[in-house]
Specification:
- The structure is a single chain.
- The chain is of the alpha+beta class.
- It has three domains: about 1-160, no CATH class; about 195-245, SH3 type barrels (Roll), CATH 2.30.30.60; about 255-335, 2-Layer Sandwich (Alpha-Beta Plaits).
- The chain has helices at about 1-5, 20-55, 60-70, 70-85, 90-130, 135-160, 165-180, 185-200, 240-245, 270-285, 315-335, and strands at about 15, 20, 205-210, 210-220, 225, 235, 245-250, 255-265, 290-300, 305-310.
- The strands form three sheets. Strands 6-5-4-3-7 form a five-stranded antiparallel β-sheet. A three-stranded antiparallel β-sheet has the order 8-10-9. Strands 1-2 form a two-stranded antiparallel ribbon.
- Helix 2 (about 20-55) runs antiparallel to helix 3 (about 60-70), helix 2 (about 20-55) packs antiparallel against helix 4 (about 70-85) and helix 10 runs antiparallel to helix 11.
- The longest helix is centred in the N-terminal third of the chain and has 37 residues, at about 90-130.
- The protein is elongated and about 145 Å long.
- The N and C termini lie far apart (about 145 Å).
């Protein structure tokens, strides 16, 4: 029937280098391709939707999102492009325009699909880290998407016959010049990423860096801000923090305390032998403390010295201070009751007549 229809002389008429028969075939091909692509999209989305409903993983949900980025205009133009191959135009510019539009659209869709995958991977990492380091991951996501667009643009320029080698070299030289100009800022930026991902400390941790100490309040691109026990804000460059020795007290499960006490030389041997037992009972009776040891350590200039060690079963600094204070009060009170005198720096002067 179609063959008989095409035998009509009217289909032999030529417009812009193609017969009406060729235009008709192209139109039929356009409709067929459009139907096939529509069915394909519907079937694939339906199957992936069912798969997503019965699986615990979310990779299939991401696949659905990728396919949904292909909007109806894309399928319409893709059908048009495939049907366009049935036609031949004398003006080369027509083919070039259609090919350029097709290339740009394909590259754009690939970029969008890759961006969806980047969002998926970043979100998976955020979920794994329980929502921490949101700022660092947002910066990383933007950099990744910027690189995707950059590669997409270079790919398009390369297909347009432009030599991208010199362009890449120019970008490299320009990048080096910019990096040298802002090397301190870049150093702090890279250090912030090191802090975010290596996690030597997190917001809320109490840290000591050299002679500075405080609770971490904010980790920024260039600086980290601490709140000292006295209340002032301490601002430190991230590059300095990554090069420094950091003590993180928040991650302690328990805190070891070592201190010394001294009694006067006039203390009798019997009382000296009681001191380890006295101190041990005091520490063992204190909630939140675990006894380690106590020893008669040395004969000092003005005192008989004992070294005491115990553990505070908490990382909280305030609780450590409370327990330490309670133990000190108990030692002082018990020594007073036992008539054991604490030592202090003294000198005895002997005068010979």
């Amino acid at each position: 029937m179609i063959t008989t229809l095409f035998q009509n002389p009217i289909f032999s008429n030529v417009f812009l280098g193609n017969t009406l028969q060729q235009y008709t075939i192209a139109l039929i091909a356009f409709v067929v391709f459009l139907i096939i692509l529509g069915i394909f999209r519907t079937v694939i989305l339906a199957r992936l939707g069912k798969l997503a409903a019965i699986t615990e993983t979310d990779i299939d949900d991401t696949a659905v999102r990728v396919i949904k980025t292909l909007k109806p205009p894309f399928y319409i133009f893709l059908s048009f492009y495939l049907a366009f191959q049935f036609l031949t135009f004398e003006a080369v510019i027509v083919d070039q325009v259609v090919n350029v539009i097709f290339l740009l659209w394909i590259v754009y869709q690939v970029i969008i699909a890759l961006s969806v995958l980047v969002d998926y991977m970043i979100q998976k990492k955020l979920d794994k880290d329980e929502g921490q380091n949101v700022f660092a991951y947002s910066i990383l996501k933007k950099i990744a998407k910027l690189l995707i667009w950059l590669f997409g643009i270079l790919f398009v320029l390369s297909n347009f016959g432009i030599d991208v080698t010199s362009l890449i070299a120019g970008l490299g030289i320009g990048g080096i010049a910019i990096a040298l100009a802002v090397q301190n800022i870049l150093g702090d930026l890279l250090s912030s990423f090191a802090i975010y991902f290596d996690k030597p400390f997190e917001i809320g941790d109490f840290i000591v860096v050299g002679d500075k100490k405080g609770t971490v309040e904010k980790i920024g691109i260039k600086t980290t801000r601490l709140r000292s026990p006295q209340g002032e804000e301490i601002i430190m460059a991230n590059s300095k923090l990554t090069d420094a020795h950091i003590q993180n007290f928040k991650r302690m499960e328990e805190r070891r305390v070592v201190f010394s006490i001294g009694v006067v030389y006039e203390t009798s041997s019997d009382k000296l032998k009681k001191i380890p037992t006295i101190v041990k009972k005091i520490i063992e009776s204190t909630d939140g403390a675990r006894f380690d040891r106590v020893h008669f350590k040395s004969f000092d200039d003005s005192a008989l010295s004992f070294e005491i060690s115990y553990y505070v079963l908490s990382s909280e600094y305030t609780q450590y201070l409370d327990i330490n204070q309670s133990i000190n009060f108990a030692i002082k009170e018990t020594f007073e009751n036992e008539k054991i005198d604490m030592a202090y720096p003294t000198q005895t002067l002997y005068i010979q007549k």
